[in-house]
Amino acid sequence: MSVIDVHTHYVPAQWPALGWDDAPWLRVDSAREATIMVGSAEFRRIQSNSWDHTVRLADMGADSVDTQVVSPTPVFFSYDRSPREALRIAEVFNDAALELTAPSNGRLIPFCQVPLQDPDLACRELDRCLDNGHRGVEIGNHVGDRDLDDEGIVQFLQHCADRGAPVFVHPWDMPASPRLNRWMAQWITGMPAETHLSLVAMVLGGVFDRVSDDLRICFAHGGGSFAFWLGRFENAWHQRHDLLGTSEKPPSAYVGRFSVDSVVFEPAALRLLVDTLGVDNVMTGSDYPYPLGERPVGRVVRESDFLSQPDKDKILGGNAAKFLSLPVAVA
């Protein structure tokens, strides 16, 4: 079975000046290292595996990965900027993604980004990208205080369903506080919490009731803590339906309407995902090339003794092939 990694990121090696004072830019430190800058502040140090397709393909070979979905790095979403500024950076980065993936003979599959704060512009940029060769779209899990049940975002999600474009949801813009600003707590606790919150919004906000079943949507990082706390969520829906009654059905009824990736690092956590969400709704992801990702890719799936080989094949590649509308390759 072909192995497909649905959760990786890229950063272009260079891009033109974006035209505003605190716009992101890349400080090139050497031929193999650079630093993402936001204004004058360092955001993240990166290496050439973020922009060099030859390095990516070599790492994929070392990890026995056949195909990567290559998505934007969320810091570049720019949802806090004006729609036109966000569109400008989306156009620059989406075109750069095509340049990165073009030499890979289909092994690197580009996902685009869109100015999600403006649904009309977002739909227009998605259409442009799909027509130019992108396979799907990565979005952040919220736009300011607007979650995924916001009317404009629901409009965009329905457009994705209509176009047959898979959607990958990644947490971003986590809250900051003295308690969260140490020990990488924004990444360790904030990212799972953000993902869980947005799945709650999808359910209670009635998004799955309003958007057609054609929507293919996957949440990063195992869906956060959603699988662990589904029972608590279900109990709250039944016990306080007066407060949690905006969805037509209880939360468990929407299991199967979304997928999650496998970046949970431990077999016990993966087993919880499979037992709770179903083996057909989990796909291999790594968060490559960032240091909090999984290497070798797919390790937790391959080493899990509770999975049959057919189930491993689904998680390693079969489910992603359906998500991406690719032919299922069997060795």
Could you explain the architecture of this structure?
Helices cover 37% and strands 16% of the residues. With 331 residues, the protein is an alpha/beta fold. The strands form two sheets. Strands 1-5-6-7-8-9-10-11 form an eight-stranded parallel sheet. The chain has a three-stranded antiparallel sheet with strand order 2-3-4, with no helix packed on it. The chain is globular. 43% of the residues are buried. This is 2-amino-3-carboxymuconate-6-semialdehyde decarboxylase. One of its GO terms (biological process) is secondary metabolic process. It is an enzyme of class 4 (lyase). Pathway: Secondary metabolite metabolism; quinolate metabolism.
Strand runs, count = 11
The first-level CATH class name: Alpha Beta
Examine the secondary-structure arrangement and name the CATH architecture. Answer: Alpha-Beta Barrel
- Assign the structural class, choosing from mainly alpha, mainly beta, alpha/beta, alpha+beta, or little secondary structure: alpha/beta
N-to-C series of helices and strands? EEEEHEHEHEHEHHEHEHEHH
Global Rg: 19 Å
Distance between the termini: 5 Å
Shape: globular
CATH superfamily: Metal-dependent hydrolases
Number of discrete domains: 1
Task: Count up the helices.
Answer: 10
Low-confidence stretches: none
Q: How confident is the prediction overall: mean pLDDT?
A: 93
What's the arrangement of strands in the largest beta sheet?
1-5-6-7-8-9-10-11
